[in-house]
Amino acid sequence: MYIKKILVFLLVSLFSALITAVTVNPGELELVEPVNKLIKNGDTVYLGVAGPGQTVFLVANSRVTSGGSNNLGGRWDQIEVRSLPEGWNAEPSLLYEQPMITRITISPNASDGEYEIVVVAIDEGDKEKIGNNVQFIAKVNVSKEVMQVDISPKVIVTGASQPASYVITVRNYGVAADTFEVSSRGVPLWNFTKSLYIGPGSERSINYEITGNEEKEWDVYLKVRFGTTDLMTHEEKVRLVVNTNLISDYKATARGYLIFPLIEWPIYAVTGFLSNFL
């Protein structure tokens, strides 16, 4: 009984795979990333938005599923970039690799706007009879606004020696992965720098925690820098207010306990809660 169920499941899975498989005809190229699309010679495809200095990975399936010298399809040997905007760089895919990956690096000084790249898939000498080549235009929209930064809260009031935590959230709206560097200045001994990776179409958050040891108001500058270019930076001023009055000490217990005997924990927990209404 169980064997029959397994066989039925395998047959259904195989049938589903067959009906969802992409048929790639001679003279076509299946682009996989950053967009999924069948490309024919002379087509134009929009890849998406990326920032100055970022690298866009163009990924394509080398397999052609129909036609060919034996009517069994074949493979493209390589994809390469034939034409680039000034200051841009590109690396062709490795010969015979699957999938084929071409790296296109935008000039770190590129202005905002739409740019065109000429890309070609090659079957050397037309040996597999799948079409001598497929040449197409890839368009990339360059924007310095591809990354969005949100820092919260803008102002923190806390007690002396109590931690204050700012949340820095970075959203990547582009098709290129990148690293971003977060740094701070303004409070001596608490300056820091940290780098994080962020994938295309995703977001990441980092906490910046700081402690003021004296009653004072501080201007804290938090800076986010993307990749290798200074064109994509975001710096924002937040405020840290350190008080030593009784109410601020009560409020500070909601962020981190003061040093006090264990038996007094419940009392400070209640005062920290009630301080939210003061």
Give structural attributes.
278 residues, mainly beta
Written overview of the protein:
This protein is mainly beta and 278 residues long. It contains 3 helices and 19 strands. It has helices at 2-20, 246-252, 265-274, and strands at residues 28-33, 37-40, 44-50, 55-61, 63-64, 74-75, 78-83, 89-91, 100-105, 113-122, 133-142, 147-152, 155-159, 163-172, 178-185, 193-198, 203-211, 216-226, 233-243. The protein has a 5-stranded antiparallel sheet, with no helix packed on it. Strands 13-19-18-15-16 form a 5-stranded mixed sheet. The radius of gyration is 28 Å and the shape is elongated. The model is unreliable at 1-20 (pLDDT under 50).
Break the fold down into its secondary structure elements and pairings.
Elements: H1 2-20, E1 28-33, E2 37-40, E3 44-50, E4 55-61, E5 63-64, E6 74-75, E7 78-83, E8 89-91, E9 100-105, E10 113-122, E11 133-142, E12 147-152, E13 155-159, E14 163-172, E15 178-185, E16 193-198, E17 203-211, E18 216-226, E19 233-243, H2 246-252, H3 265-274
Parallel strand pairs: 3-11, 13-19
Antiparallel strand pairs: 1-2, 1-4, 4-9, 5-6, 7-10, 8-9, 10-11, 12-14, 14-17, 15-16, 15-18, 18-19
Spatial order of strands in the largest sheet: 2-1-4-9-8
* Class based on secondary structure composition and strand pairing: mainly beta
Low-confidence stretches: 1-20
Question: What percent of residues adopt helix (DSSP H or I)?
Answer: 10-25%
Shape: elongated
- Determine Rg (CA atoms, Å): 28 Å
Number of alpha- plus pi-helical segments:
3
Distance between the termini: 69 Å
Can you summarize the main beta sheet? Answer: 5 strands, antiparallel
How many DSSP E strands? 19
